[in-house]
Each structure stands twice: as structure tokens, then as C-alpha cells.
Amino acid sequence: MTSILIGWPGGSLESALKLFGLLLVAYALVLWLSALIWVYRDIRNRTNDQSSQLFAILLVGVFNVPGLIVYLVIRPQATLADAYDQSLEAEAILHELQMVANSCQVCRRPIDDDFNVCPYCRTVLREPCRACARLVRTSWLLCPYCATERAQPRPAVQAQSAPPSAGAQTTAPLTPPRRTTTSTRPQQPTQPPVGR
Predict the structure, then answer these.
(1) Which one of 49, 84, 140, 182 counts the least CB within 10 Å of its CB?
(2) What region does 13 belong to: left with phi over 0, alpha with psi -120 to 50, or beta?
(3) Which residue(s) pair with 126 in the sheet?
(4) Which of the four pLDDT bands, split at 50, 70 and 90, describes residue 16?
């Protein structure tokens, strides 16, 4: 290799070593600047604290590659975007858990804790316990007050199913029957047409 460099026009071993040293310095300078730029971008994605950002840049600026290794060890694990996504995910999970606890099992609309029937879809939400007669949710497997197993819910009866037997009782609908309203205005008698 040195014979090729010496063989250049006007080349000597001294000029070849200077060229090699210059290339080595240029390579180290480019590596140092790229490490500084990468650390600057990385630390800005990981924290908003100005003193932490300045410390990381100075660490790599002064100590170069060993400073970069130290920075990689002490930098925050998650970026700001990752932390924001995690907080949104945790908030969504908490909201979903709260909605499950305070919503109807059928229509998923919000309800109060003390509702016995859903006001939107008329689903029964609470029934009295067989043993202690306290109201328990229909989705619970046992009574939390007396630890009595609840009867498993029966599957919903299909509409237009077989007609009820003669001894079976039918349940009354939850909606009251519609009342026909009559007009409160008295009707005026019709007058016969007046002849001419």
C-alpha cells in the first residue's frame, strides 16, 4: 500500500502518512459530530428537562465514544411518545373498567349503581338473594353478603316460541298498555246547510 502512495506523482512516505492521518482525523471528527447529533435528537425524544439534555450532549461532546456508551446506559428507557401512548392505554383500560362496572350488560349504556332495571333496554340488573334477600347483580355468581350461590340465569326465551301450557303463568309486559287519548275539545255540532 505504501508503495502505491509513494508511487503517486510527488509522493513520499511522509506525505502518505500525513494523508492517512488526515483521513483518520476526518473520520473521527465525522464520528464525533454524528454521535453528538444522534444524542441531541435521542435525548429530546426522551425528556423535556433542559439540564438532562445539556448533560447528555456535554457527556458525548467531551468524552466521545466512552461518553456515548455512558449515555446509552443512563438514558431514559422510554421516549416521550411511548410514555404518552402508555398513559393513553392505561387511561383507556381504566375507562373501560369503569364503564363495565357502571354500565348495562346488554346495551352498555351508563347506569347508576343502585339501578335495579336498565332504563334504556329494561334488562334486570339486580335480583334479591335467595338466602339474605339483599339485592345482588345478575352477573355475579354468588351473593357477596352471605356467599350463597346464585341460580344460573336461564337462557332467554325465544320470541314466537311454543305456546304456553295451560298451567303456565305468563308474565306481564314491563311497558304499560297504551291509552288512547280523546280530544278534550268538545265537538261542535254540524249545522245543516242553509237553503236559499
Answers:
(1) 182
(2) alpha
(3) 137
(4) confident
CA nearest neighbour of 57 among 68, 49, 66: 68
Please provide residue 176's backbone torsions phi and psi, each rounded to the nearest 5 degrees: -70, 150
Q: Letter for the amino acid at 195? A: G
Residue 152 phi, psi (nearest 5): -65, 140
In this prediction, residue 102 carries a pLDDT of 77
Residue 143 has a CB neighbour count (10 Å cut-off) of 20
Q: Nearest 5°: phi and psi at 6?
A: -70, -30
Give the pLDDT confidence score for residue 105 in this predicted structure: 77
Would you state the cell numbers that stand for residue 143, as one nine-digit string? 351473593
Question: Is residue 35 helix, strand or coil?
Answer: helix
This prediction's pTM: 0.46
Residue 38 — pLDDT band, cuts 50, 70, 90?
very high
Three cell numbers written together for 27: 473520520
Task: Compute the distance between CA of residue 55 and CA of residue 136 in angstroms, rounded to an integer.
Answer: 59
pLDDT at 168: 45
Residue 129 has pLDDT above 70, yes or no: yes
Q: How far apart are CA 163 and CA 160, in angstroms?
A: 8
Q: From start to end of the chain, where are the E strands?
A: 126-128, 135-137
